[in-house]
Design brief:
2 helices; 14% helix; mainly beta; rod-shaped; Lipocalin; eight-stranded antiparallel barrel; 9 strands
């Protein structure tokens, strides 16, 4: 009887030990954010901008702006762009807000185009190339022509 009892105890312990299943589930790592998600996470303000503009008569000027520095040639302290996930958004300059529409124009998401609508009859299409986007910075080369004929070419860095 003792042998039978010992056998059943040993069998019960064996079943208990070998029936425990190891948890093989690995933690789920979330997918990295897409360029669209990073772009539309919050508004972007200029940190640094270098650009050259030429007017219709051929005259032009080179400009430089660095956030937090006194003596900038241009002031962009109150300028920002909000890209929404719906491919719309807002361009803010001072106290004025203008609607925008935007889209990446290549599969690599390194080219972006947005249109700022100032009024029903006035808008500007801005082209960004060589876009490098992280969760906190946005770098690009920029060009556009205004409706008054000013052509601009520059490079910028934006931050949240």
């Amino acid at each position: 009887m003792k042998n039978k009892l010992s056998f059943f105890i040993l069998l019960a312990l064996s079943l208990a030990i070998f029936s425990c299943k190891k948890n093989d589930s690995t933690p789920v790592t979330p997918a990295p954010p897409t360029p669209e998600q990073m772009l539309s996470s919050s508004s972007w303000k200029i940190d640094e901008l270098r650009f050259s503009q030429v007017n219709t008569s051929g005259g032009g000027t080179a400009y430089y702006y660095k956030r937090g520095v006194t003596g900038n040639i241009s002031n962009f302290d109150n300028e920002n762009i909000l890209f929404l996930a719906s491919n719309t958004g807002t361009y803010t300059l001072g106290s004025s807000n203008y609607p925008i529409t935007w889209q990446f124009t290549n599969a690599e998401k390194s080219k972006l185009q947005f249109i700022v609508t100032y009024s029903p009859t006035s808008s500007m299409t801005v082209f960004w190339e060589n876009v490098v986007l992280t969760s906190t910075t946005l770098k690009y080369a920029e060009y556009y022509t205004t409706t008054t004929g000013i052509t601009s070419l520059g490079s910028g860095t934006r931050i949240h």
